[in-house]
Automatic annotation (TrEMBL), chain A:
Keywords: Amino-acid transport, Cell membrane, Membrane, Transmembrane, Transmembrane helix, Transport. One of its GO terms (cellular component) is plasma membrane. GO terms for molecular function: transmembrane transporter activity. InterPro entries: ABC_transp_permease (IPR001851), BCAA_transport_permease (IPR052157). Its main location: membrane. It comes from Chelatococcus asaccharovorans. It is found in: Cell membrane. This is Branched-chain amino acid transport system permease protein.
UniProtKB/TrEMBL annotation, chain B:
Residues 1-23 form the signal peptide. InterPro entries: BCAA_transport, Leu-bd, Peripla_BP_I. Pfam families: Peripla_BP_6 (PF13458). This is ABC-type branched-subunit amino acid transport system substrate-binding protein. The lineage of its organism: Bacteria, Pseudomonadati, Pseudomonadota, Alphaproteobacteria, Hyphomicrobiales. SUPFAM superfamilies: Periplasmic binding protein-like I.
TrEMBL record, chain C:
GO terms for molecular function: branched-chain amino acid transmembrane transporter activity. It is a multi-pass membrane protein. This is Branched-chain amino acid transport system permease protein. Keywords: Cell membrane, Membrane, Transmembrane, Transmembrane helix.
């Protein structure tokens, strides 16, 4: 294989991995919220961008280290989610078919946040680029990759691993999975379903925020990424199976690689078409998703 | 009887009074300035407004009829540009429209202006169709973008005959037009296009595409991303080992050059005015000084075109005061205008479609600081607007 | 349409004074405002949104489907009309063709509603809307991509001249009035009652012998006609279209007009459109406030007044459109087999 082709191959692999890990994070966040409280959060892309914007303000505006900023942003998601949960989300916990109400609600939130960003951040939309976590470049064979991106990839994978461990081995994780599977049974077994709801909403959003701030650390971004991300995360959730974190991770990785590979041969628009097409087919023929329990 | 007399007397009185006070009391002339204050093109729009503001302070000297620019945001969104134009046209009754610095919004506004017969002065929108045959109300200061493509081919041909060029750019009307001109002229200039990579709007990453460019082994790389993405592409090319001397940006304004940073020293960019030009007029030097004093950075062609736009409108109204209240007359006066850019001395004259004699400078970056940069003029060319079939190359 | 009994129609409409009042007002308002072209234009846009909201009302209010691809359908019609007129067709011929294209597309894209309900159908329609928008951007040879198409010629009037200004607003007003009249006829017809039965419970409707497939597709066909006529009129009226003129936000806005005014009533959505459609034009200088305001209204409608203005601010448990959380497959085992 010629050097040039090797460079293309390695760049595709690295891009696929980083994008895939970030997609997986966001989709995992969306699917945790949907699996527990039935909220299909269309505002996930706006939350994602909110994290990225906070990260930008903290590093570029206030001069904080990107490490500190990333931790602060993820930390900040907790009180913000909790306030939102108290104000809006909680009201619907007892509504029998709440997912469509939540869906509409989240579309409303999307519109509000998009309007707020346009007023507050719109004028800087050409400048959203964060300082790197670490400097320097590593050569993988002939292919140079920024250490910063490797670090972002490592962190994203670490968060995903932590999430798995939490859901599988921690008491909360077991309770959460019990709620995923059967609310009534979980209640009977003494699980405080409402507390699990609140926790899941906060946890899901924290993971989405992590995805947003990591994306901002790896790539430049603008406000339009919100809608693309929202649709992509939905597509991943539906294909992977709503409520299945494993599905979200696997399909998220597949999407990351698809995006990287398709952009070699065709326009990235084709990649978007292919996601959406796959999502429609799954919706129509196996709405419980590929990784349904 | 007495009532009639009194009203006649009143009318007479009013007549003389208005004559005496004409210069001061006539309402200001309003120009609707719809530009990119937010959205991906905001770095152009805000630069433009900075140039316009400087001109606004200078052109409204006492004794002259005031010219007010009603500045409105178009969010880099064509639909918003049309909506704002309509509001300015019908509600504010502006004499003329101006302002867009992106071809997408410019085209939308052009459609509105031509259809509703509102004179439209495009400071910085380069899509060829803005001056397509049959255009009547639109006048454009910036050379058309298909022509830039022609000029880039000429520039590369002069530097390295038979060179291989790779193209990597965002899918905006402006970039489509430049590359159409470049692709048309390349074979005529005996250049070889070895890669042609387009990003959709809103793209974030160029790692794979930069690798593809590298694999094509070009002598020169034409790079043009929208907004912050321009930096992303440039940096990823440099990361992979493309030399700065191989990179040609079709256009560069101050904020862009500063954002490219030190690692881009040696790269080329096209421009129509730059503080580092070999030949600036005295007024041009004053403009650079005043602008730098006010904004903390030197102006580039966007600031200049918007500054010139305000000056051109002032000049037309000063020469023929009666055009200030009549759009048709204003259009005719614009069409007949023969003047020069005060800052660089380059002539301004519009052909029957509202296009100017076209020109471009290529600069090579020498040094980049926090708020300023040094560049060297390496190439200049001028051409007739229709030297290549610009109006049929891009739809 | 076919299900509409003819004997019902003339009597039903003749005595219907609100419709008569609306028609008079719809023609009169732009006429009175024509001194100020901008306000007249805002009135024209409002009437256009009334037409769209009425179509959305048929689908959302009376059939219980929330089609977020509504604006995309309007876009299909608009691009058809613009392309056909640019190759020399008369606008008046292009309008029905574009409308029909939108309706056929709407009927086909409505097919998923046969399997999917509630949230799943809404999500599906959101995906479809996104695909349509991407398509508008991607097939630039027809749509001119994100740059959009400007200088769309105004319709010519038989006998010379162009349809502009007040004349255009009156055409839109008449179309809006016809749209409302058609919806009234549908609602009173057996077809309308079948749709209402489907909205309440389509499994039950099926067991009552209603051909759910046929009724839903007919509803999509007719609802899309509204989108199509509106889109065809929109393009030359504004003079400019781009993919963003018909994106998901527009669908949401139209949906909001219906939900805010009161779905499932004839006049609720009309008032919803009257109140909400002029806002972006009147707030031209504070346009971003529009997004925030619409967003807040969406949330307010969902939480505080699920019945919309028409039902007042009674606080009650939100009743979802067709509140089925599970896909149709599980409701209807026969189809899954």
């Amino acid at each position: 294989m010629s050097n040039a082709n090797l460079i293309i191959l390695l760049s595709t692999l690295s891009t696929g991995l980083i994008l895939g890990a970030i997609f997986a994070l966001v989709a995992a966040g969306v699917t945790i919220v949907y699996g527990s409280i039935w909220m299909p959060n269309a505002a996930n892309g706006q939350f994602f961008v909110l994290a990225a914007l906070f990260g930008w303000t903290m590093t570029v505006g206030w001069g904080l280290s990107p490490w500190v900023a990333a931790l602060l942003v993820i930390g900040l998601s907790v009180p913000l989610s909790y306030i939102l949960e108290i104000l809006l989300i909680r009201r619907f916990y007892d509504v029998p078919n709440r997912n469509i109400s939540y869906f509409v609600l989240s579309l409303g939130i999307t519109q509000i946040l998009a309007g707020i960003y346009a007023i507050t951040y719109g004028r800087w939309s050409d400048q959203f680029q964060l300082p790197p976590l670490v400097g320097g470049i590593t050569l993988i064979g002939p292919f140079p990759i920024a250490n910063n991106r490797l670090m972002v990839l490592a962190i994203a994978l670490a968060i995903l691993a932590a999430l798995f461990i939490l859901l599988r081995f921690h008491r909360y994780g077991r309770a959460l999975r019990a709620v995923f599977q059967n609310r009534e049974a979980a209640t009977l077994r003494g699980v405080n379903v409402r507390a699990i709801y609140s926790l899941s909403f906060i946890l899901g959003n924290a993971v989405i925020f992590a995805g947003g701030v990591l994306f901002a650390l790896a790539y430049s971004f603008d406000l339009t990424v919100a809608w693309t991300m929202a649709i992509t995360a939905f597509a991943i959730m539906i294909i992977g199976g709503p409520g299945s974190v494993l599905g979200a991770v696997v399909v998220g990785m597949v999407f990351g690689f698809t995006q990287a590979i398709v952009s070699i041969f065709a326009s990235p628009t084709i990649a978007a078409f292919s996601y959406l097409g796959a999502m429609l087919l799954i919706l129509l023929f196996k709405p419980s998703g590929v990784f349904a329990r | 009887m007495s009532m009639v007399l009194r009203s006649v007397a009143l009318a007479l009185l009013a007549g003389t009074a208005s004559l005496a006070a004409q210069a001061e009391e006539k309402p200001p002339v309003k120009i609707g300035f719809v530009t990119e204050l937010t959205g991906p093109w905001s770095f152009f729009g805000t630069s433009c407004v900075a140039g316009l503001k400087l001109a606004e302070q200078q052109i409204n000297t006492s004794g002259k009829r005031r010219i007010d620019f009603v500045i409105t945001d178009n969010q880099t969104n064509p639909a918003q540009a049309v909506a704002a134009s309509r509001s300015l046209d019908v509600q504010d009754k502006v004499l003329a429209l101006s302002g867009p610095t992106s071809s997408d919004t410019g085209l939308a506004q052009y459609g509105y202006a031509e259809q509703n017969k509102v004179p439209f002065i495009a400071p910085v929108a380069a899509f060829p169709q803005l001056t397509k045959p049959g255009t009547r109300y639109t006048f454009r200061l910036e050379p058309n973008a298909a022509g830039w493509g022609y000029a880039i081919a000429k520039f590369v041909e002069q530097r390295k005959p038979g060179a291989k060029i790779a193209l990597i750019y965002s899918d905006y009307a402006l970039m489509r037009a430049i590359t159409a001109g470049l692709k048309y002229q390349a074979p005529l200039s005996k250049l070889n296009i070895v890669a042609d990579i387009v990003f959709p709007q809103g793209a974030n990453d160029a790692t794979v595409q930069a690798a593809q460019v590298l694999a094509a082994q070009p002598d020169y790389v034409f790079v043009s991303g929208a907004g912050g993405f321009d930096n992303t592409i440039t940096n990823q090319l440099l990361d992979l080992g493309i030399k700065p001397e191989q990179i040609i940006h079709p256009f560069g304004i101050t904020t862009q050059v500063i954002n490219w940073g030190k690692r881009s020293v040696g790269s080329f960019y096209g421009t129509f005015f730059d503080s580092n030009l070999d030949a600036l007029t005295t007024e041009g030097k004053t403009f650079v000084e005043q602008f730098t004093a006010q904004n903390g950075r030197p102006p580039s062609y966007v600031e200049n075109f918007c500054y010139v736009t305000a000056n051109v409108i002032r000049e037309v109204i000063d020469k023929n005061p009666d055009v200030a209240d009549d759009r048709e007359k204003f259009r005719d006066a614009m069409s007949a205008l023969k003047t020069k850019e005060t800052t660089s001395g380059i002539p301004i004259e519009f052909d029957k479609n509202g296009a100017r004699k076209e020109y471009i400078y290529f600069m090579q970056i020498q040094d980049v600081g926090e708020k300023s940069y040094k560049a060297k003029q390496t190439f200049y060319t001028e051409w007739d607007p229709e030297v290549i079939p610009v109006y049929t190359l891009v739809k | 349409m076919t299900a509409m009994p003819a004997e019902n129609t003339p009597r039903g409409l003749a005595v219907h004074w609100p419709l008569a009042a609306f028609t008079v007002a719809a023609v009169l308002v732009p006429t009175l405002l024509s001194g100020n072209r901008y306000l007249a234009f805002v009135a024209g846009m409002t009437l256009l949104h009334i037409l769209w909201a009425t179509g959305m009302n048929l689908l959302y209010g009376y059939t219980g489907l929330m089609p977020l691809m509504f604006a995309g359908l309007a876009g299909i019609s608009a691009y058809f009309v613009v392309n056909l007129t640019s190759i020399g067709w008369s606008f008046w011929l292009a309008l029905p063709v574009g409308t029909l294209a939108a309706s056929v597309a709407g009927t086909i894209l409505g097919l998923p509603s046969l399997r999917l309900k509630g949230f799943y159908f809404t999500l599906c329609s959101l995906v479809i809307q996104t695909v349509i928008t991407l398509g508008f951007v991607y097939f630039a040879s027809i749509t001119n991509g994100d740059t959009g198409i400007s200088q769309i010629p105004r319709p010519s009037i038989p006998g010379g001249g162009e349809l502009t200004g007040l004349g255009y607003e009156i055409v839109i007003a008449v179309m809006a009035a016809i749209g409302i009249a058609v919806l009234m006829l549908i609602v009173r017809s057996p077809f309308g009652r079948r749709l209402a039965a489907i909205r309440e419970d389509d499994g039950l409707a099926e067991t009552l012998g209603i051909n759910v497939t046929y009724q839903k597709l007919a509803a999509f066909f007719i609802g899309s006609l509204y989108a199509g006529v509106g889109g065809a009129l929109y393009a030359p009226y504004i003079g400019f279209i781009s993919p963003r003129s018909f994106d998901v936000l527009i669908s949401m806005n139209i949906w909001l007009m219906v939900a805010f005014g009161g779905r499932g009533t004839i006049w609720g959505p009309v008032f919803g459109a009257m109140l909400l459609a002029p806002i972006p034009f009147l707030l031209q200088d504070y346009y971003t406030v529009k997004d925030i305001l619409y967003g807040v209204l969406i949330i307010a409608v969902t939480i505080l007044m699920p019945g919309g203005l028409a039902s007042g601010f009674r606080r009650k448990v939100p009743k979802a459109a067709v509140a089925q959380d599970i896909p149709a497959r599980r409701l209807d085992p026969r189809r899954a087999a």
